[in-house]
């Protein structure tokens, strides 16, 4: 009986993990508030791309934030439609960085 129970628990864990990234983690940590679970599920497939990978220009000046590490940030929307591939998204990042630096006169891309 105990082998069957162990197998069932392992099977549930494998199914949850393969169904969607992060579900097994959330299932095992039921103490997480509901809003946190929704954010983790929505963001589980996000890939963060470093500046050098999308071809960022170096900033004119660089200042450290007073609060390290940053506790919160937001992703601002644009009037553009979504991008779904690396090359299109990289081109858009370069466009917005050029706009912010060359047109607005900012030191870099406008981060939150």
Automatic annotation (TrEMBL):
Cleavable signal peptide: 1-24
Keywords assigned: Signal
Keyword Signal in annotation: yes
SUPFAM superfamilies: N-acetylmuramoyl-L-alanine amidase-like
Protein name, as recorded: Putative conserved secreted protein
Matches recorded under InterPro entries: Amidase/PGRP_sf, PGRP
Domain of life, source organism: Eukaryota
Record PANTHER family: PEPTIDOGLYCAN RECOGNITION PROTEIN, PEPTIDOGLYCAN-RECOGNITION PROTEIN LC-RELATED
Annotated source species: Amblyomma aureolatum
């Amino acid at each position: 009986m105990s082998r069957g129970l162990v197998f069932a628990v392992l099977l549930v864990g494998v199914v949850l993990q393969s169904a969607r990234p992060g579900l097994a983690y959330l299932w095992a940590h039921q103490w997480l508030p509901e809003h946190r679970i929704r954010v983790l599920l929505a963001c589980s497939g996000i890939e963060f791309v470093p500046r050098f990978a999308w071809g960022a220009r170096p900033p004119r000046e660089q200042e450290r934030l007073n609060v390290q590490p940053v506790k919160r940030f937001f992703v601002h929307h644009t009037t553009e439609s979504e991008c779904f591939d690396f090359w299109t998204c990289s081109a858009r990042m370069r466009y917005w960085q050029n706009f912010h630096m060359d047109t607005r006169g900012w030191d870099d891309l406008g981060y939150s």
